Structures are given as C-alpha cells and as structure tokens.
C-alpha cells in the first residue's frame, strides 16, 4: 500500500473500494504516465483489483489511457494519465477590498482567475450575497465550459473554527458567521460542498500543491496582507489546532514597549513587521498597492531611509520566523502577499536573523523564500482543498461522455 502521510490508506475507510479508488487516483496524479502494473507494484493492490479500479476511474473520466510504451521488459503497456476534463474545483478569497476567484482542473491547471472589487463592512449577510453573485458567475462559466464543479472552498482573513464558522474576522467586521452555510443557501443548494477556512491555511495548501516547494512535508506560509498569519503544514498535513485557531503568529509579542497593535497589545509581530509598519502609516486597502510600488521604486533607487526601514522590518520579521524555526522546524517558510515585491530587501535581513536566533545549527535547515503564487494564493488554496478532498476519496460519480 502507499505509505504517504498525506494520502489515503486502504485500511483507513469503511468503504474500501472508494478508498482504493482514491489511492489509485493519487498515484496516477503523482506518477503519470504510469501503467496498471506500476500501480499494482507500488500500492500492493493485486492486478485484477487495479484493473477494476482503473476502469471505474476511466468511467468517471478522472483517468484516461494515453497510448503504449515499449521502454520496458515484456509486452508494451498502456499508460495512464489524469483526465478530469469534465470537472473543476473553485477557490475564493474574501478580502477587505476585493474577492479573488480561481477555478482549476483536476491536475491543477488554471481555468479561470478573477479579481473583483468588494467593499466589506456591511453585515455578513450582505457581504455573502455579494460573494454569492461572483460565485454564481464562476459556476456559470464552468457550466458553459461543460465542467461539473467538484466543490468550493472560501478563504477568510480571520479565526475559523473546525466547523467552518468564522468566529471573528476583524478586518471584515464579522463575528460568529456561518459563511459556508449562508453561502450555500444563497447559491440555492448548488449541488457541491462549500467549505470555509482561514486564508493562511489555504495559501499554505496552495504552496504545498502548486508552489515552488510543492510536496514539502513541513512548510509554513506567512501572509503579507493587512494582517500577518501563518498556515502550518507538518508531516504533510495542515495543522489547525484543537479548535482551528492555530497560526496567529502576527500577535506574538516581540517588543512590550513597541508600537500599538490592532489587537490592543503592543509590539506584536504585525505591529513591527506588517505592511502597515513597513509603509509607516495607516492606509486603506486600496492605497497599499500604490504605496508598495512607490516603496519598491525608492528601494531600487537606493533611498537610504527606505532601505533602513525595510532592513528593520526584515529583522523583526526574522525574529518571528525564528520562533517558527525553533518551535516547528519547518523545511521552508514562504513569505506571501505584499511581502513578495519587497522580498529582495526583506529576505537578507530575515535570513540573517533566523541564522542568528535559531537554536539548531544552520537555522535547523529552515529556508525562507518568497511565494511565486502571487496575491491569489489563498483562492488557489481553496481549489487545492477541494482537490485534496478528491484525493482523500470524495470522488464524483460517473459522467456521460461529452461529444
């Protein structure tokens, strides 16, 4: 059987066939092109079972045959690759001033990337209605492309419990909001699951599946939006904590005498190394991209004051990352959001601080890098969560072939 810590195991589910279908599908995703014999040899499933499972996956149009290969001993083998052409996974990120939507195919190929203006701050119900209108347009686009939606996962900048209830999202003005349930109702029971999670958690899933360090078993993603949060993957699995509130690294206090933080404390990581601290003044979300561009321009021109500010912010950020390095020993910490365009000036200071403060030699092997996924990482992570559900055995039923 496959022994991956992140994949489904044939003995883990009551429905053994559904589990084994997921095992085979995951193997094809990770090793395509591959043959039925390859699957049997690597998973421990017998050849007859593999043939039956593959036939089922072909019927569901999750896998397809793609010719023969002769580069092996014995008879040529029919090779298998992912299909998934009739399906789509949708991820949405709700932010203070915009909603991002991403749709992907089964292999992760982007089918659609949208960003729409959004003004949070009304009631959660009003905000959900606005988001539902955007989701309906995405679903309609997938329907026109003859793709069945496998699921929707929504990223929110706030505390989301294990049931998917948004306990508090201060930047959106939400508290104890069942966004998933309300969104499903607004979509009039759309026929697919609606999940909700913290934006850093979903961005971490995107990095693990699609990022430059895809496949990393121990990874932390740091958001660089208005707030600073951490999505934590350990031993190949996203870690949410007992109630779902893990990752609030932005409110780890670094300096008791430091600047005031939005949480009411002083000297939190967010207050000394968040985007607001780097730009040195409170800005509306719409103003931040312009200010970031100005900061990048000034840094490239060698502006001494700007370079000093970025160095100080990088060192403060490095102190926060060193806490993660000592506590979790991740292989990689990925800086996302608005940290990405500032990374050329932040990263040297961050890395120096981690090397100095990490207890283990050479920072415990912790590499600090900038994300390559852009500002849509959390939305892309929503799609990744849907695809993870498929990998774990939540497979669509058979589908008629589209002529």
UniProtKB/TrEMBL annotation:
InterPro entries listed in its UniProt record: ATPase_NBD, HTH_MarR-typ, ROK, WH-like_DNA-bd_sf, WH_DNA-bd_sf
Keywords from UniProt, A to Z, are:
Kinase, Transferase
Keyword Cytoplasm, does the record have it?
Answer: no
Please give the Gene3D superfamilies that the UniProt record associates with this protein. 3.30.420.40, Winged helix-like DNA-binding domain superfamily/Winged helix DNA-binding domain
What CDD domains is this protein classified in? ASKHA_ATPase_ROK_BsXylR-like
Q: What is this protein called?
A: NBD/HSP70 family sugar kinase
GO MF: kinase activity
Which organism was this protein described from?
Answer: Nonomuraea roseoviolacea subsp. carminata
Domain (HTH marR-type) spans 24-65
Member of which family?
A: Belongs to the ROK (NagC/XylR) family.
């Amino acid at each position: 059987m496959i022994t991956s810590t992140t994949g489904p195991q044939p003995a883990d589910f009551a429905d053994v066939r559904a589990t084994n279908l997921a095992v085979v599908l995951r193997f094809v995703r990770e090793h395509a092109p591959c043959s039925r014999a390859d699957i049997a040899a690597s998973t421990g499933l017998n050849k007859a079972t593999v043939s039956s499972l593959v036939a089922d996956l072909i019927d569901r149009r999750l896998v397809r045959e793609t010719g023969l290969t002769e580069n092996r001993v014995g008879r040529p083998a029919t090779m298998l690759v992912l299909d998934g052409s009739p399906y789509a996974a949708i991820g949405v990120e709700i932010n203070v001033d915009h909603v991002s939507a991403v749709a992907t195919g089964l292999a992760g190929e982007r089918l659609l990337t949208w960003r729409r203006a959004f003004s949070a701050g009304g009631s959660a119900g009003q905000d959900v209605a606005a988001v539902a209108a955007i989701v309906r347009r995405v679903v309609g686009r997938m329907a026109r492309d003859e793709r069945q939606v496998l699921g929707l996962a929504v990223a929110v900048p706030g505390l989301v419990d294990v049931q998917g209830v948004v306990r508090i999202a201060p930047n959106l003005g939400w508290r104890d909001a069942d966004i998933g349930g309300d969104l499903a109702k607004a979509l009039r029971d759309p026929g697919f699951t609606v999940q909700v999670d913290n934006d850093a958690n979903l961005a971490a899933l995107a990095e693990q599946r699609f990022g430059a360090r895809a496949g990393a078993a121990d990874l932390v993603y740091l958001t660089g939006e208005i707030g600073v949060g951490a999505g934590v993957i350990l031993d190949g699995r996203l870690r949410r904590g007992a109630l779902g509130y893990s990752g609030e690294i932005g409110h780890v206090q670094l300096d008791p005498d430091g600047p005031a933080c939005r949480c009411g404390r002083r000297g939190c990581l967010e207050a000394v190394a968040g985007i607001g601290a780097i730009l040195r003044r409170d800005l509306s979300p719409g103003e931040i991209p312009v200010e970031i561009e100005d900061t990048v321009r000034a840094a490239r021109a060698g502006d001494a004051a700007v370079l000093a500010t970025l160095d100080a912010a990088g060192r403060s950020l490095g102190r926060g990352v060193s806490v993660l390095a000592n506590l979790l020993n991740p292989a990689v910490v990925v800086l996302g959001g608005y940290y990405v365009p500032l990374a050329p000036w932040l990263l040297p200071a961050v890395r120096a601080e981690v090397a100095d403060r990490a207890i283990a030699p050479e920072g415990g092997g912790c590499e600090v890098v900038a994300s390559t996924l852009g500002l849509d990482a959390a939305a892309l992570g929503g799609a990744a969560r849907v695809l993870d559900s498929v990998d774990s055995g939540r497979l669509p039923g058979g589908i008629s072939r589209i002529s």
